[in-house]
């Protein structure tokens, strides 16, 4: 099977709208049975038998016409919110488009007067108890309740009574990652269905009925699945909010650029949300071949490693036993000098290097350092991609580096027994791969993404120099994930420190004769 | 580069200077007599006397506080969003649960709230955008400082008691 290459791009639609359904066409063979046809707003569309009306609109990218709260393309259908009702000719009442199967010859109107009146009514009911705390709510700006109220809502509420307040659940910490504000909930139950059918952990339930219906954790384990961040993505209101992002930034200030998560070998497609090149959160983007709609919490929190204030972003040189910041030219000249003086040099490429970096280091490092350099790769979690395995049924992988297969493909061999054997060892990694076993006075040169804590934790104190490198979301390249899919990505933020790309370092070293 | 000639040819009367001096002296004498003999003043003795401005005058900012001296601001960033001069800089944080007697109403608070008065154009959009009536523009127009740094005011300064623009009277 040939390996597909994907360029990671931001889809036009919102995550809650994107679906993998594509248009279908009848077989050109005249003997074959033609596909059934449905008429939506005066246009005819072919569909696959079994589709619901909502799924037909998804096939033809008409889904923006139909508002929805409970329907999500990645989850089973519930039909609880009544927002997606459409008018079907010859049907006595309005039908929920998410749960009504499409039929041959059906005529559907999504914008008729009756439908609009129904949507206004549904919005009026949803807003009866919704607090007017948009200024404090983190969802404001990307909230479906705001959007649909702007589009369909009544200009004035008919509700004169006192609003319902959940005294014990206004700011309820469900886990260390997610906070619940029950007053804002519109009871779409996407979260409950997600834990029931996607993660299959059943950790959320709705308790009580009607006016008192309340979201709660199912048992004493609390909210414990590994995909809690997704709850905050698809919650159409600000009921469930991600603690890392809580009160940090208003959503309309964020720059959104597509990139790739480098926390495991799955290579989930993400959107980096940043303002002034400070990353505030990662959000998954839909890719049906890789991660679907979801992303794990480990990957979602991994931006904090990058935004770590202790990350080294300036070239360091060992001066009288302590690492001192200096210019890149000085560091590179010293690195080259000590490499030339050493009896043997080993370059250990972490499996978080891009395919381009791996190929470059394999081909050019001997030329750049002006002497023979043996190049190996080191992963730190597994020996080779053959040992990689799934940690659960959804996304998480045992290999916590993104490009083991790509580095193997570049022709690098793993380090025997995870031990180094040269006089000077150059460790190249992008903040994810582990470090090999080092003896107490092994001379090392660090290259790539390192934090001060990681440098201090090294068993050796003989660090000659540190060349800072760009992290995954700051550079361009491609990863080959555990399923053999090559994904190209582009920089999502601009690096504002002194780190430079591996290509630039190799270029400078080669030029520096 | 082109040159613009702004020099002017003077007429014979202008060249004589004297008529213009006489016209000027006439105004000077008129004001002198009005002020000195009839006590008509054209200036005010500033620090002791202050000019009355309209109630709609937009002067120095302040943040309104509740009876417990807690700011009404919930760090919603609407003023920062609407500000055309980009002079407002807010950092939000969660209020300590231990000393939060307000519950959910004031769970979010500004960790810092800085206004760069040198950048501010006193348009009053922040006051208009504020959903909590927290940021207001007072009628105070005395904002001179000794340094540029002093012109960047912080939350403690903004919370000082101020005379706001007049409340809307019941009529």
CATH architecture of the domain at 316-511 in chain A, please? 3-Layer(aba) Sandwich
Which second-level CATH architecture of the largest domain in chain B applies?
2-Layer Sandwich
Q: State the CATH topology of the domain at 316-511 in chain A.
A: Rossmann fold
- Placed side by side, the strands forming the largest sheet of chain A appear as 16-15-22-21-20-17-18-19
Specify Rg of chain B, calculated over alpha carbons. Answer: 26 Å
N-to-C CA distance of chain A:
45 Å
Provide structural commentary:
The complex is a heterodimer of chains A (513) and B (171). With 513 residues, chain A is α/β, with parallel strands linked by helices. Among the domains of chain A are: 122-242, 2-Layer Sandwich (Alpha-Beta Plaits), CATH 3.30.70.20; 316-511, 3-Layer(aba) Sandwich (Rossmann fold). Helix content of chain A is 21%, strand content 20%. Chain A has helices at residues 53-59, 113-128, 144-152, 190-198, 228-234, 297-300, 303-306, 328-341, 355-369, 404-409, 452-457, 502-511; strands spanning 5-7, 37-40, 43-46, 85-88, 95-96, 107-109, 172-173, 178-180, 204-207, 214-217, 240-242, 255-260, 269-275, 278-284, 316-319, 322-325, 345-350, 373-378, 413-414, 424-429, 443-448, 463-468, 477-480, 486-489. In chain A, helix 2 packs across helix 3. Chain B has 171 residues and is α+β, with helices and mostly antiparallel strands. Chain B folds into two domains: 11-42; 61-158, Alpha-Beta Plaits. Helices cover 23% and strands 14% of the residues of chain B. Chain B contains five helices and five strands; from the N terminus they run H-H-E-H-E-E-H-E-E-H. Chain B has helices spanning 12-16, 18-38, 78-82, 125-129, 155-158, and strands at 61-63, 88-94, 108-116, 135-137, 152-153. The longest helix of chain B has 21 residues, at 18-38. The chains are: A alpha/beta (513), B alpha+beta (171). At the A-B interface, loops of A face strand 2 of B.
